[in-house]
Design a protein that fits this description.
The complex is a heterotrimer. By secondary structure, chain A is mainly alpha-helical. Chain A has 2 domains: 106 residues, Orthogonal Bundle (Cytochrome Bc1 Complex, Chain D, domain 2); 80 residues, Cytochrome Bc1 Complex, Chain D, domain 2 (Orthogonal Bundle), CATH 1.10.760.10. Chain A has 10 helices and 4 strands, in the order αααββααααββααα. In chain A, strand 3 and strand 4 form a beta hairpin. The two termini of chain A are 43 Å apart. Among the domains of chain B are: 61 residues; 142 residues, Rieske Iron-sulfur Protein (3-layer Sandwich). Chain B has 5 helices and 12 strands. In chain B, helix 2 packs antiparallel against helix 3. Chain C is mainly alpha-helical. Chain C has a domain of 257 residues: Cytochrome Bc1 Complex, Chain C (Up-down Bundle), CATH 1.20.810. In chain C, 67% of the residues lie in helices and 4% in strands. In chain C, strand 5 and strand 6 form a beta hairpin. In chain C, helix 4 crosses helix 5 and helix 12 packs across helix 14. The longest helix of chain C has 51 residues. Chain C is globular and about 95 Å long. The chains are: A mainly alpha, B alpha+beta, C mainly alpha. At the A-B interface, helix 7, strand 3 and helix 10 of A face helix 3 and strand 6 of B. Strand 1 of chain B pairs antiparallel with strand 4 of chain C, so a sheet runs across the interface.
Chain lengths: 257, 327, 453
């Protein structure tokens, strides 16, 4: 019965963990200019959901590959910073618009990413690629800001978490630039923090903190996940409890006949 | 002749008696004997020495202050005690006599029960009004109990539940951010998530922290009477969850509405989920009350101020939470 | 020399007769009888390490600014209480080891009590004349849960602060008197006055340890007075107990167990990090973090709080049952109430009012075992739901779907467990009877065919 239940739960999980169908690249990449490469990559990988000119597909879904109903937000005014983020994290391309974007293997190479960023960035000015300076920030200021603005979803040492209906990613692999980009973009269902809400100096501190949190100060030994009592309880039962029962069994014995 | 017989009898008695006396001269042991096991003894010695070695390492570790100090110290003491434990277990199973003793369980009922009851009964033989005295004694005991407990009332403002309705928000009170800077309406952007506090008030008070978000005014469906509570679509709610008092520090807001969940304020403790567009109604989770909304106005400088108090008392529910307006 | 020492002591204390009995008190040999001792030794470690901690911890909510070596807290405002814990952890040699030992010991203490309780329940050791011992044990369990909660809340870190807010909400949720009670305990609205922290501290450091210590003494006295129970076996009867005497047999075993428990706690305390409060940061009412959980032994309560539908019956302005009351008060009352009432329930249902010094094997009391396992599965399911969001994070299973599934499973599974356990017990009993019959028949056959020698 528990297997049936597990399968019922696993179904939505596997649906959202669909394999990437791969990307479409032009055959003669080497011969193309950067702007032409960007145009062709966009046409082959993005336009079905985001529209041929970045106007988006809202309302009537277009027919995408397979049975996928293609839908996507407009990219006008997204800016190079936004495109750079979504591509370098592997959030995009998203095979199915109802799928939750998550960090995946990046299939585009460096030149392709730059080309796409430049091309989509030309749809209208938006967020530039940020250049955070975590060295200028203070980790203690970052802890305060991160706790205030981010820990509710991402957990106080950025171990990831849950918001109703949405898994929130841990930030263990985020680069300084990606952290700054995510803060300014508010990707997927994350809120967006403009420089009026979090100044560039404050952002430097947040980046410095997240980078520090990627290697937490484990003075006490094995960090067991840095999320507190759940793994601690597991250790108490599975390690402590079983070792103690074993010890009792070794010491005690049944009465000999 | 009788003398010889006496001698013979004496000798026989002596001889027979000597054997018995021999056995009788050996003291009766309380604890059963056990065979010595020199090899096990050596094992115990070895284990004890290991334990001593690790224990002796502790002052050295303290002096040397190596990196990973906590781990090294814990391992050293842990291992020392582990070897001590092993030594004791080996001694207990190999060197100690293995005795299986019998013992009687105690009597189910002691013969003294009757005597105890009798002592109590006979002591009260001088009383003629047992019931009356008993009731009055109980009354006195009860009164004394209440008397002794009464000072406990000083532990807190136990009768002043009115303060549970208090918040620091009043009409005209300005919203400030965590740095004390006033929040301008123009700085509140859609898809942003802001925390605000009342200017000049104690931040730690449950009624102080707010969450502020901006929605497209066309998306709003506020309850009757709150039509002007959200100027330009800017909404303010108490940050304290109405379920169990945690701070609502999660805001889920879609980038692309057709395929992403609607905006929601969520509490990380038990995932009570509130809809800002409908004035804080509960979408999911165990909260029994919607999230209290604070009416806002934009002043001449463009800053956000409270236009009044919340629509209902803030914080977790209690007996009287629906009885009065917040004060 | 030993004789002289004994004489000197006995002349001045009169303890020789008592010692004569105590040294040869008979302990049953089964390993499961040692679980209670594990709890006792954990408690001793708790008291010893706790005393050390009191020399460093400052139960003050005075605001201070951190200026220690840990960079992420540099210049951060916090309570003196939190600062003293961070200082102890990161600047006092062996401070972190003792603190982590203390916390691990608390977790292991309750693990041991629960295992011990399970052994007591499933072998029927709570029956006459040991009901009082059982009630005392349950009381100690309840007090230990509160003691642990207060202990980790004293640090005033982000996680435990959230937990205190929830405790406040649970107190508030008590019908009619909840508001008054919460204001009494906290000396005002949450987060409370400056008297609240010393109050928590005194309770954690003095009142509850003394209460638990006294109860332990009573518990052990009663165990010895009525004597340990024993499993069935040759020569073991209602009237006679067979086992190993305290001295010399049991003593090295118990001492070895004590050293072993202490060893495990030292190893855990030094090698596995627990409650790294410097990572969480200080608590403020307006702050919270994802993934906050209580310590494991209160996980059943967060499960109850999360599992409840949003029922909050109210009328005429009066809120009869604020929602946290169901998961935070009703649920633990039902669980502890059932445990306390069980000896009476069993006595009524079976009509058995006799003394029981011989333990049941679980299979020999099919209904008790079935009910016990069903009851445990009920509590454990609620407990597991308490961390369902972690399951979502790690395995991708939808939290909302888990909630709906648990709403059904939490009632259906215990019923199934009851039915299945009953069948299994009866099946094993039947098999034993059949095997015994077979052995008897074979023995007869052998006797009949054995030739006259």
């Amino acid at each position: 019965m528990s297997l049936v239940l597990l399968a019922a739960f696993a179904a939505p999980a596997t649906a959202s963990a669909q394999e990437k169908v791969g990307i479409v690249r032009p055959d003669n990449e080497g011969a193309l200019s950067d702007s032409e490469l960007g145009r062709q990559l966009y046409a082959g990988n993005c336009s079905s959901c985001h529209g041929s000119n970045g106007e988006g597909v809202v309302g009537e879904p277009a027919e995408g590959a397979g049975d996928i109903q293609a839908l996507g937000p407009p990219l006008r005014g997204a800016g190079e910073g936004t495109v750079d983020f979504y591509l370098r994290t592997g959030y995009m391309p998203l095979p199915d618009p109802t799928q939750v974007p998550h960090r995946t293997r990046v299939l585009f190479n460096e030149r392709e990413i730059r080309a796409l960023v430049a091309y989509v960035g030309s749809f209208g000015s938006g967020l530039p690629i940020p250049e955070p300076q975590p060295g200028n920030g203070r980790v203690s200021e970052g802890l305060r800001l991160f706790t205030e603005h981010c820990a509710g979803c991402h957990q106080v040492v950025a171990a990831g978490g849950y918001v109703t209906d949405v898994r929130v990613p841990p930030l263990s692999q985020a680069t300084a630039r990606q952290i700054a980009q995510a803060v300014r973009i508010g990707p997927y269902v994350m809120p967006r923090f403009s420089d009026k809400a979090i100044s560039d100096e404050e952002l430097d501190s947040i980046v410095a903190y997240v980078q520090a949190a990627q290697h937490p100060h484990d003075e006490g030994g094995w960090g067991i996940g840095h999320i507190g009592p759940v793994p601690e309880g597991m250790v108490a039962w599975l390690l402590g409890g079983s070792l103690l029962v074993l010890l009792c069994a070794v010491i005690g014995k049944r009465i000999k006949q | 002749m009788s003398r010889l017989r006496d001698w013979l009898v004496s000798a026989a008695v002596l001889l027979a008696g000597r054997g018995r006396a021999h056995r009788r001269r050996e003291p009766e042991r309380i604890v059963a004997p056990t065979e010595p096991r020199p090899r096990s003894e050596l094992a115990v010695v070895f284990l004890l020495l290991l334990s001593a070695a690790f224990a002796a390492g502790v002052p050295i570790i303290y002096a040397l202050d190596p990196p990973r100090f906590t781990q090294v110290l814990g391992a050293s003491l842990g291992l020392s005690l582990a070897f001590l434990s092993a030594a004791l277990i080996v001694a207990g199973s190999r060197l100690i006599p293995d005795e299986q003793l019998e013992e009687d369980y105690p009597e189910e009922s002691s013969r003294e029960q009757a005597a105890v009851a009798e002592i109590v009964e006979e002591s009260s033989s001088g009383f003629t009004r047992k019931k009356l005295l008993g009731s009055v004694a109980a009354l006195t005991g009860g009164a004394l109990g209440v008397a002794f407990l009464t000072p406990a009332v000083s532990l807190g403002p136990v009768f002043n539940t009115r303060q549970l309705y208090d918040t620091p928000w009043r009409r005209g009170r300005r919203l400030v951010d965590e740095n004390g800077k006033p929040i301008a309406a123009g700085d509140v952007e859609t898809k942003g998530f802001y925390t605000a506090y009342p200017e000049g008030a104690d931040r730690e008070e449950l009624g102080s922290p707010l969450v502020v978000v901006r929605l497209d005014p066309r998306e709003l469906a506020l309850p009757a009477g709150r039509e002007d509570w959200a100027p330009e679509g800017i909404l303010a709610f108490s940050k304290i969850c109405t379920h169990a008092g945690c701070a609502i520090s999660l805001y889920r807001v879609p980038t692309f509405e057709p395929v992403q969940p609607e905006p929601a304020l969520v509490c990380p403790c038990h995932y009570s989920t509130f809809d800002p567009a409908t004035g804080g109604s509960v979408l999911f989770g165990p909260a029994g009350r919607p999230l209290p909304q604070l009416p806002l106005l934009v002043d001449e400088s463009g800053d956000l101020r409270a236009a009044g108090n919340f629509d209902q008392p803030i914080g977790p529910s209690w007996w009287g939470v629906r009885l009065r307006e917040p004060t | 020399m030993i004789r002289k020492a004994v004489r000197v002591v006995d002349q001045r204390t009169g303890t020789a007769p008592f010692l004569r009995k105590a040294l040869r008190y008979v302990f049953p040999d089964h390993w499961s009888f040692l679980l209670g001792e594990v709890a006792l030794y954990s408690f001793i470690v708790l008291v010893a390490t706790g005393i050390y901690l009191t020399f460093f911890f400052d139960p003050s909510t005075e605001r201070v600014v951190y200026h220690g070596p840990y960079e992420p807290l540099q210049g951060v405002e916090m309570s003196r209480a939190y600062q003293s814990v961070v200082q102890l952890s990161l600047q006092v040699k062996a401070g972190l080891l003792i603190r982590q030992m203390h916390h691990w010991a608390a977790n292991v203490f309750v693990v041991a009590i629960v295992l011990h309780l399970l052994r007591i329940f499933f072998t029927g050791a709570f029956r006459k004349p040991r009901e009082l011992t059982y009630y005392i044990g349950l009381t100690m369990l309840a007090l230990s849960l509160l003691e642990g909660y207060l202990g980790y809340s004293l640090a005033d870190d982000l996680l435990s602060g959230m937990g205190l807010a929830i405790g406040y909400a649970v107190a508030l949720s008590i019908p009619f008197v909840g508001g008054n009670l919460a204001l009494l305990i906290w000396d005002g609205e949450f987060p409370g006055s400056q008297d609240f922290w010393p109050r928590m501290y005194a309770t954690h450091v003095l009142f509850l340890p003394v209460a638990i210590g006294v109860l332990i003494g009573l518990h052990l006295f009663l165990v010895a007075s009525r004597h340990h129970t024993q499993f069935q076996g040759p020569r073991k009867t209602q009237r006679k107990v067979i086992g190993t005497p305290t001295v010399p047999g049991q003593a090295p075993r118990s001492l070895g167990l004590m050293a072993g428990v202490a060893s495990l706690l030292f190893l855990l305390g030094g090698l596995v990090q627990i409650n790294p409060v410097w990572l969480w940061g200080p608590y403020e009412t307006g702050l919270s973090t994802n993934g906050a959980q209580p310590d494991w032994y209160l996980g059943w309560l967060i499960g109850g709080l999360r599992l409840m539908p949003p029922w909050e019956p109210h009328a005429w302005g009066y809120t009869f049952v604020p929602n946290p009351f169901w998961g935070g008060v009703t649920f633990p009352l039902v669980v502890f109430g059932t445990l306390f009432a069980w000896p009476t329930i069993e006595r009524r249902l079976t009509g058995d009012r006799g003394f029981h010094n011989i333990l049941d094997r679980p299979r020999d009391a099919p209904h008790r075992t079935a009910f016990g396992l069903a009851f445990v599965s009920w509590v454990v399911l609620v407990f597991f739901f308490g961390s369902a969001d972690r399951v979502t994070v790690f395995f991708g299973l939808s939290y909302v779907n888990q909630l709906y599934a648990y709403w059904v499973v939490v009632w259906v599974l215990p019923v199934l467990v009851y039915a299945v356990t009953l069948r299994v017990c009866r099946g094993v009993q039947r098999k034993e009877l059949v095997d015994a019959e077979q052995e008897r028949a074979e023995a007869e056959a052998r006797a009949a065919t054995a030739p006259e020698i």
